[in-house]
Amino acid sequence: MSDSEWKDQAEMYEQKADGQQFLSFLLDDEEYGVDILRVQELRGWTPVTHVPDMPSYLKGVLNLRGAIIPVVDLRERFGLASVEYGPTTVVIVIKVDSGTCERVMGIIVDAVAETYTLSADEIQPPPQMGGAINTEYILGLVAQGEKMIVLMDIDELMNSDELAIEPSTGTDG
Amino acid sequence: MSIDLSQFIATFLEESYEGLEIMESSLLTLDSADEETINTIFRAAHSIKGGAGTFGFSEVADFTHIVETLLDELRSGVQQTTPELINLLLESVDCIKMLLEAAQDGPEADQDQINQVTRRLNSALGSETEASSTETVTTSQNEVSADTGKQAWEIDFVPDAGLLRSGHEPAFMFEALADLGELDVTAITKPVPKITKIQPEELYLSWRLTLFSDCTEDDIREIFEWVEDECKLIVTQTTLASEIPVTSAVTQGWRVQFKPHMSLLETGNEPSFMFEALAELGDVEIGCDIESLSDFDAFDPEKLYLSWTLRLQSECLFDEVQEVFEWVEDECDLEITAIEKAAEISAPETKPEKLAPASNAEETSAPATQNESVQASSASTPAPDQKTKPEPVKPAASSPAKATPKKAAAESSSIRVDTDKIDALINRVGELVITQAMLGQVGEELAEIAAGSEVERLQAGLEQLERNTRDLQEDVMRVRMLPISFVFNRFPRLVHDVSGKLGKKVELVITGEQTEIDKTVMEKIGDPMVHLIRNSLDHGLESPEERVAAGKPEMGRVELDAYHQGGFIIIDITDDGRGLNTEKIFQKALENGLVTADQQLTDNEINELIFKPGFSTADAVSDLSGRGVGMDVVRRNIESLGGHVRVKSEPGHGSTFSVSLPLTLAILDGQLIRVHEETYIIPLVSIVETILADQEAMSSIAGENKLLHFRDEYIPLINLRSLFKLPLDENQENSLIAIVENGGQKVGLIVDELHGQQQVVIKSLEVNFKRIEGFAGATILGDGSVALILDIAGLMQRGLDHETASTAKKRSGQLRDEDNQQGAVA
């Protein structure tokens, strides 16, 4: 699906349901959410091909039916303690808007939790806080009963640091 | 009836650009007054004008009209072709291109330039035509028709009986037709019944009309637009051209001059087999030339002394004839020329009554001065004027400016397909290859643990699958291949312009332009090629005076040759100029600090220096080259495509730049290697050799093994483990080293293990990730896992520190000195 088609559909969906759906996942017992329309698919963990000389959170690249996609360990990205990958370890394949193009990437999370439909007024702006997770990557916070869910801004997160597309040199396409 | 024209605009533009290319290439060959070439140019211009008018690009139409008028004067002999006129027309081609680009939301056209060219075009034209240039396209077409008047239309108009009842009046339509040109009306009264049976409201007549006009079929049909449902209308073209419309384009046969080299038989080729193959295409007459047959004493039974002239009666394509001789191309002089029907039959079998009205029209409408030449032309060439064919003239089918055989070759049917679709297909086939490889692996594993006829059948099936997939992949790859003439075609113009600017006389000889190359590679090779050719013209060739002084012909020669070699296409750019001046190059390199004075370099090594950044030997920086940003960029661009560029030079006799490029960027032959736990792929073309080296062969700098003593040089080593920041293997005694080369520099890569060699489909890392220095991309292996493909140039940049490189150079130099000394002693 192209970017514009995708946006159209997103808008349509919003109008219909009067809210946005989020998929939540677990990282070290904390719950995070991503816009469900950005999720392309869920995969079990399979070994990836290591790419030399990359930060440790960049686990490598994966063959997704012929496309080669990078896979990021979100625990390591956020500086949480890394764990052994097990049967519940999930790779969420997401579509990232990178300005000039849409890239498909994988994020490794401990487990997938639930889906939520949230209206705009339920989402609170992120507070200023220090720590591993830069507030730039946070879309907002949502309280669901006892729990608090951190909604991630996937585009900000997946275009940061080593994941950024380098300015093209123009010598080669 | 309204048609949305906008959907055709893209096609129109595409065809117009092709038309412009034809105009340009034809203009460049138009040094002698060749009528057929002028006609080609005229037709191309006419199609552009017509299309531009239809789509409302009035600026293009108006401008092209002036060009067309001038061309018409050339054609009719009112004006003579002069170099100035050709230059003016070439500039006009540029202007039309600019206007088309502007029409296509491109940059605004340079109005000053267009006005200036328009002025010059108008002044080149007579004052009479100048006035007409301001008129609209449609009226101008009438005028052209009056000038040439060779075109006629036959219209069979059979109205329904009820035509009059719906208020139509044939006489009005005939009047409208008469406005287009001279009209001959014949009523067919046969169906008229007896007078007692006539219904006054019914129409019993039908008509046959002959219209002498330059108009298009559409113009005629427009007149009948209101009655098209109530009549039968047949419009046919009945000029001389229509009498033998196809024969001029479709060849009737081929004359093949086949002069094999004497060594032909030694390579196992047998001429008679080829003749048999030719006979399959049609009737063959064989004439044998025994002139070069030697005396019996000197006769060598293994040599071939004969040559042949064959006449093939067949409507086959040029390519089909050439294919027969494919295997011996390099071992013979082969000349294939078309025999056209017109040439075969001495007088065209035109019916005199058709001829008569046409020449009548000439007499009545053509100015007296043109009369003679026009008649002469209609008699000598069967189809001098196809410009008013109802369909827009397809540029592909009308390029007789080139050798006649190509005309037939270009006629092979083709379709335009979006490259995205082809790429998708290639990707899909790539997937198939991977799946097939996986199945093959499973099959082999199965054969190891089980036996029986089923397993054997499975294996046989898998083998067949493999063959078919490979074939399929090759076929699909070929879809993307285009003849390199698409790149070469722009060079005659370049050479024409540049040599004019430099005041040099240059002949450009192009061979092998049918060699095919991947479209992507082709798109990227244009600029480096332009640079190399400019370089040959500017630096390579001497001025005419210098050449004469050196005992060479005044006319310099630049040869462009393309051919296949292995999985590569090689393009040689050869000039017969002064060659590279090694002394001057060395001096310049010294000034620029690229070398040190004590360095001993071979001539070849010195020549290689011109590819270093910041290097130029031109005494004066010219408009063309010599800014010192040239050869290094050329080399970089070519290497980024996975190719090489080399230079050979012979002082005083010229130089040759040899560019080798992979046929495609989509697949490559790779050597699979293991480093630590991962598999990587080294492009096989970069590998010079793989060796197992013991510690003694490696010398260290700062405690690390960094240099390999290999043959007569020291090669810097890159340990891939340390470069990739992987744990080092401490207890290894011998190192497996893949010696790779890039840009004339060798480097040894220390790897853990060598696996097989395999053709791999290159996948970009950039699509979903980004460009990673040192990697050209990735591929998917048979087991579905991803392997990264090493980019040797990038690795060298990343892994080679300056110190190691310079030490390697110094020690290699010492080594060579020692050799030299030893040689001197011995």
Can you walk me through this structure?
The complex is a heterodimer of chains A (173) and B (826). Chain A has 173 residues and is mainly beta. Chain A contains three helices and ten strands, in the order αβββββαβββββα. Chain A has helices at residues 3-17, 74-77, 154-158, and strands at 20-27, 30-35, 39-44, 58-64, 67-73, 90-97, 102-109, 111-118, 138-144, 147-152. Chain A is globular, with a radius of gyration of 16 Å. Chain B has 28 helices and 26 strands. Chain B is of the alpha+beta class and 826 residues long. In chain B, strands 18-22-23-21-20-19 form a six-stranded mixed β-sheet. A five-stranded mixed β-sheet of chain B has the order 10-12-13-15-14. In chain B, strands 24-16-17-26-25 form a five-stranded mixed β-sheet. The chains are: A mainly beta (173), B alpha+beta (826). Chains A and B meet through strand 4, strand 5 and strand 7 of A and helix 17, helix 25, strand 25 and strand 26 of B.
Summary of the model, kept short:
With 173 residues, chain A is mainly beta. Chain A has helices at 3-17, 74-77, 154-158; strands at residues 20-27, 30-35, 39-44, 58-64, 67-73, 90-97, 102-109, 111-118, 138-144, 147-152. Chain B has 28 helices and 26 strands.
Strand order of the largest sheet of chain B: 18-22-23-21-20-19
Helix-residue proportion of chain A: 10-25%
Number of helices of chain A: 3
Uncertain ranges of chain A? 167-173
Question: What is the count of β-strands of chain B?
Answer: 26
Q: What proportion strand of chain B?
A: 15-25%
Number of strands of chain A: 10
Largest interface: A-B, 28 and 32 residues
Flag low-confidence runs of chain B.
127-149, 240-250, 342-410, 619-629
Helix/sheet category of chain B: alpha+beta
**Sequence of secondary-structure elements of chain A:** HEEEEEHEEEEEH
Strand portion of chain A: 35-45%
Mean pLDDT of chain B: 75
